[in-house]
UniProtKB/TrEMBL annotation:
SUPFAM superfamilies: ARM repeat. It comes from Ameiurus melas. It comes from the Eukaryota. This is CIP2A N-terminal domain-containing protein. Pfam families: CIP2A_N (PF21044). InterPro entries: ARM-like, ARM-type_fold, CIP2A, CIP2A_N. Residues 26-431 form the CIP2A N-terminal domain.
Length: 448
């Protein structure tokens, strides 16, 4: 059965359940939800079609009804988790529907029994939906949700501790109104103590969640200054780099990288990292992850490297790490140059920067942004010679990216893709003209 037919059947089942609530209509609706969940329907919400929108509005109404059975609500939550599998769908869920308010209301209705499976499922879906999304504090039921999270983080309810911490980390991050609301609570000191106790937890994910919340709430306060002082901050750096390099699951790596990105916005901590004695080794290991890793890992590694480039001394160090001098055995005519010496960081970065347009968009754009940062650093510096060894590989690769035959004016993805490539190409040409011999410069027209 195709997606449209399934959605029409789902909408009919929603209407029947709304008009005649009972076991039979609930069972039929649950079956239709499961049928849709079994289909490949990614990005259907971002398509702007009316039918999916009507279905989702109806399902949120069903989930938000206190009289709906936990089984039926659970089916709706499972479908929401599938629909929120990509950033575009998440954006659609937030911009067009009161999805956070609805799920927060479900949690509020079950606040007396937080051990119920429906509460855990709601928390997990909310954590996925709110990752890297800034919510308005005025959204419905946010205050109730924050109160619930604070109480259960302090209660040591182990079944829901991790998702409560993860969701709280999402809500606090870069959201001053939420931070003010939390810090105005009468039990804030007890909340801080609970978070500090989690720093000794045996689960690294819990530790990173707690650190993330503490950095959002206390970095400019006395508690934060004690926690992230010169004596302790190196332990945090070690934790973040260990998780990034050795992994404790994609989720933990994402939050660990986000934590360091946020900490770097503090000038003192950026200075501490610059003087971190293990940083050169850590950066070398992080850059090494660009070779042969999955797109999810590559995205976070590239996000971290681009963020580090905002600190001039760190950008110079990353430049030295990535643009290592290449040996003479590089072969510009190789079909896939990144396979010639795949372990070389610059070529691994090249592979992500020139991945197919249908591939991981975020990886490509971040890789091009990192190239931009690195070549801004080397132009006119003593390091420019280290980049020359693989420039002839990079130029034709960027040329093919710039002049992709599938480009269309209406395709925003390709426009962004080519804009990044164009910026990187401009910088590379500047380097060639400023550092290379006349003979090399004369060869440039064949690339542009």
């Amino acid at each position: 059965m195709d997606v449209t037919t399934c959605l029409k059947s789902l909408l009919l089942a929603i209407r029947q359940h709304r008009e005649h609530r009972g076991t039979s209509t609930a069972s039929l609706l649950q079956q239709q939800i499961q049928d849709v969940s079994a289909l490949e329907c990614s990005r259907i919400l971002s398509s702007g079609q009316v039918l999916p929108s009507e279905c989702l509005s109806g399902l949120l109404e069903v989930a938000g009804d206190p009289n709906t059975s936990p089984a039926l609500t659970g089916s709706v939550l499972s479908l929401l988790a599938r629909l929120a599998s990509d950033d575009e769908s998440k954006e659609a869920l937030h911009s067009r529907y009161n999805i956070v308010g609805t799920l927060a209301a479900v949690i509020h209705c079950n606040r007396a029994t937080p051990e119920e499976p429906i509460v855990l499922q709601c928390l997990q879906v909310l954590q996925r939906l709110t990752y890297n999304v800034r919510l308005l504090h005025c959204a419905s039921h946010i205050d109730d949700l924050l109160t619930f999270l604070m109480l259960n983080i302090q209660s040591q309810n182990h079944d829901i501790t991790k998702p409560c911490l993860g969701l709280m980390a999402n809500l606090c991050r870069q959201n001053q109104s939420v931070q003010v609301q939390i810090k105005s609570q009468s039990n804030i000191k007890a909340f801080y103590r609970a978070l500090l106790n989690f720093l000794g937890h045996n689960c690294l994910t819990v530790v990173v969640f707690a650190l993330s919340i503490l950095s959002s709430l206390t970095l400019s306060e006395e508690v934060g200054q004690k926690l992230f002082n010169p004596k302790n901050i190196h332990q945090t750096f070690q934790l973040i780099f260990n998780i990034t390099v050795n992994g404790d699951g994609t989720l933990t790596r994402n939050y660990a990288v986000d934590l360091l990105v946020d900490l770097l916005k503090n000038a003192k901590i950026a200075d501490y990292l610059t003087n971190y004695k293990h940083l050169p080794v850590c950066l070398s290991e992080v850059v090494g992850l660009l070779h042969g890793k999955d797109p999810d890992t590559a995205v976070k590694v590239l996000e971290l490297l681009v963020s580090l480039c905002s600190v001039p001394p760190l950008r110079r160090l990353i430049c030295q790490t990535v643009l290592k001098p290449a040996a003479p055995r590089l072969q510009p005519t190789a079909r896939n140059p990144a396979q010639v010496r795949g372990a070389e960081p610059g070529l691994a970065l090249l592979q992500w920067a020139t991945c197919p347009v249908q591939g991981p968009e975020r990886c490509c754009l971040l890789a091009l942004e990192l190239f931009t940062e690195l070549f801004e650093e080397v132009i006119g510096s003593s390091q420019s010679g280290s980049a020359r060894s693989f420039l002839e590989l990079l130029l034709p690769a960027l040329q093919s990216l710039l002049y992709t035959p599938d480009f269309s004016e209406g395709d925003a993805l390709l426009q962004r893709h080519c804009a990044r490539a164009g910026r990187a190409l401009d910088l590379l040409l500047d380097i060639l003209y400023s550092t290379c011999s006349t003979a090399v410069c004369q060869r440039l027209p064949c690339f542009i």
